[in-house]
Write a structure and sequence with these properties.
Number of helices: 13
Helix content: 40-55%
CATH topology of the largest domain: Rossmann fold
Strand order of the largest sheet: 4-3-5-6
Number of domains: 2
Shape: elongated
Distance between the termini: 60 Å
Mean pLDDT: 89
Number of strands: 6
CATH class of the largest domain: Alpha Beta
Structural class: alpha/beta
CATH architecture of the largest domain: 3-Layer(aba) Sandwich
């Protein structure tokens, strides 16, 4: 059976560093029988050379709230362990470093309040009462989103180069230009939106990938659980930008503004998409990774079977 952590180990875990006055560990008292109060925790921290904590941070350790109640305390070392785990998670979520997080949050009530609020659930009514965007996105049908990609343009150019009078190719090129005009307007709609809730991280090259991503986004955001919340999301299958540099900058802006990222695991993932996941986490924001469950038919179609004899 694992031994429970000692008081010294918990304080080291809370602060993210070894005690500056490590010899004091030899005279560190045991956990008080009547529970550990605010002043007592600060005395232990000072004894080991750590910084003191604020009233609100202590209350956060006690019960995950910030408004200090005089006389409250941690009743047992197990309660302290739970509080330390809570504080470490908050530090890692927003800073990726326990030591830095402790310095930022434990001694500054305003900073603690700011980051704490970012972890609290929001009232769904707040979303339902939002106003519609002034410049809404004009939905492009899933089976036409492929025209916003670059591969189809190359295919059409090659067909017209080989046969300038190809009526079907000329007609399709005209349709491509109309779809892209809608994509450009949608790109502007995303850029002028006052807020953004979700960034959809994808990698798309082939026609079926555009269709699948577009249909998936529709299924998620128009589901019964979400459709009344008036969420705003960035769907890359609905926007077009002819310049890859501008496109990268625009998507970086969307990623910065979004409150979370929906990451789609696909047949092939790219460094760009993976960096969007990493960037979201580095900003202290959540990522939801969706990994589809392939059907037997999907698996068979993806495997090169030996020819029949």
């Amino acid at each position: 059976m694992d031994q429970p952590p000692t008081l010294g180990q918990l304080l080291e875990a809370l602060t993210g560093q070894r005690p500056p006055l490590s010899p004091a560990l030899d005279v560190l008292p045991s956990f008080p029988e009547g529970g550990l109060g605010y002043s007592q925790l600060n005395e232990l921290l000072l004894l080991l050379g750590y910084d003191r904590v604020t009233h609100s941070f202590f209350q956060f350790l006690v019960d995950d709230t910030l408004e200090y109640r005089p006389g409250c305390g941690l009743r047992s070392i197990e309660d302290l362990e739970v509080g330390v785990e809570r504080a470490r998670k908050l530090s890692l979520l927003f800073f990726g470093n326990v030591k830095f997080g402790f310095k930022m949050l434990a001694g500054d009530s305003d900073q603690l309040s700011h980051y704490y609020e970012g972890t609290q659930p929001l009232d769904p009514e707040m979303f339902k009462q939002r106003h519609d965007p002034i410049h809404p996105v004009d939905p492009i049908p899933a089976d036409e989103t492929y025209y916003l990609g670059y591969v189809v343009q190359k295919d059409l150019d090659k067909r017209l180069k080989d046969n300038p009078g190809d009526a079907a190719a000329l007609s399709e090129k005209g349709h491509l230009e109309r779809v892209r005009d809608r994509g450009i307007r949608n790109q502007r709609a995303y850029l002028v939106s006052d807020h953004l809730d979700v960034y959809v991280a994808t990698s798309m090259r082939q026609r079926h990938e555009y269709v699948e991503v577009s249909e998936f986004a529709d299924a998620v955001f128009k589901s019964e659980r979400l459709k009344d919340l008036k969420l705003r999301w960035f769907d890359p299958t609905q926007a077009y930008c002819s310049d890859r540099i501008d496109k990268g900058l625009a998507e970086a802006l969307m990623l910065k503004r979004a409150q979370c990222t929906l990451y789609l695991a696909q047949e092939s993932d790219t460094l760009g998409k993976d960096s969007e996941l990493a960037s979201t986490l580095a900003q202290g924001k959540p990522v939801i990774a969706y990994v589809p469950s392939p059907t037997n038919e999907d698996v068979l179609n993806s495997v090169d079977l030996p020819p029949e004899k």
